[in-house]
Design a protein that fits this description.
mainly alpha, 15 helices, MetI-like_sf
Amino acid sequence: MGTYILKRIMTIIPIFLLAAFLTFGMIHLSPVDPAEAYLAARHIQPTDELLAQKRQELGLNQPLLVQYVNSVIQIFQLDFGESYVTNKPVWEEVSSRIPATIQLTLGSLIIAILVSIPLGFLAGIKKNRGIDHFSRFLSFFGASIPSFWFGYLLIFFFSVKLDLFPVEGIGTWEHLVLPSITLALPLIALYIRLLRASVLENLQEPYVLFARTRGIHEKNIMGKHVLRMAVSPMITGLGMNLGKLMTGTIIVEEVFSWPGFGRYFIEAIFNRDIPVIQCYVLLAAGLFLISNLIVDLIHMYIDPRISRKGRQFQ
């Protein structure tokens, strides 16, 4: 098992290097000159002399291979350069905003798990009953309504009309409720469908029939066996969405004026702040790879057959 985990970790490195190469290539293939973008962000009129000087400072006059190698070395040192707007280290700016995004991500994940697991499980074991119809309606509603519109609806009813929660900002748990619900709704819609379908599939498996034949109580069959096996696709969905959540909270952070990483990324796009954009893309890739590794390890714990298959292929 340890060898399998080590091999999975080692596969992350070349994939991340490929992501860094693609990001580096897109930046250099872009019609936007990094030196010109820097001067524009600082509201400096670009001249040929200033452009040449800035290209020299940014190392843009070096061969592309040298620039790429230097970029990779700096990335592994968490050095993404300096922001064109604030002239501060990008990682310093990002690390000060990541906690707010993590807080929002964890809040939405907790809500999504607490709502989707019981609803999806009950919808599967009580097919075509009231709870199943309600779960399907909620999943269709969550999948179809745009996040920004749902966020504004929550603000209108719970902040403007009822004055229960703050409209914007961060600081207390009341600030976290509405943006977390807004971010969690699409996840709830997805996880309910995944869990319901998985429960229905597992109910047809032979081990359920054998357990009933042996006289095992129905609650034990459902709770200890069916739910444990059915939750596997949902865990996969969590792994696929964790990195996306961490770096994809842009709309929600804008709607609720949440001072997180996503809002900072939007500002970087408008300012053509290339080091910040590069940091965002690579951080998204890294989070996606790490979250999928964590999901694989959780799957090995839930289903020991995966660990045995991993040893067979070593």
